[in-house]
Request: fold
Amino acid sequence: MLSEINYLLFVVVLAVSFVASAVYLVFFFSQREKLRTIARMILIGSGGLQSLYILSRYFIAGHTPITSQHEAVTFFAWSVTWAYLSFRWRYTVKNFGTFVSLMVVILLLLAATVSREFSPLAPALQSLWLPVHAGVAVIAYGFLALAFIGGIMYLLQERELKSKRFGFFFSRLPSLDALDQLNSHCLTAGFVFLTLGIITGSVWARQAWGTYWQWDPKETWSLITWFLYAAQIHQRFTAGWRGKRAAVMAIVGFSSVIFTLWGVTYLLGGVHSYAQ
Reply:
């Protein structure tokens, strides 16, 4: 019975998120301000329902629901949603919500394609470090996803400006300076959480396996991803990397995040590939 209710709740989450994205898209084309407000309120509702869905899985499973592919992708969508809403609370970036809502829907659709069955928790995961390490890491991915979206928007706007045609996207996208500031904010926040994720993971590994680092494929790719973003942070604040170069690096870094999340699990395996 509880599993059926949980399933229906996910369907509602997907439907509400789809509606939010649809309204954002209508606003993107029509630029009617009232629609943007409506879309944002629906997205907030989606974020609340996502939180409720994750909590319901927690109470049913008895542990943090982030140990299967479905749960990991759903948690990722939740992270992107609330990372954006926390960003939007302080900053306004023109039509950013449209692109974010599309990513949230895509992630939830991906989550819908894999099994939603509950499975016993592997012995190595039976630790209080699970919600700390996994939660911090996925929150990092949420902010880095925003930097990725900002990078895509930057390249689209730069192309419009270089063409000197000032077409469809020009009036609907933020200025290059605003997008560069977005990149800086989200990259910094994501990097802080990513660093905390690696530190907590190392402490957990020491507790579980007696060593801080095993060079497991997922650990190795997490470190590669960290170095990619560390290089971006260093170059931005010491060598003055801005604009297109920073946007491209945000996309490259996020590609490494995606490979760490899914590519390693399906292609390289290892002790961290519980989601298989």
The first helix runs from residue 2 to 30. The chain has eight helices and no strands. The chain has a mean pLDDT of 86.
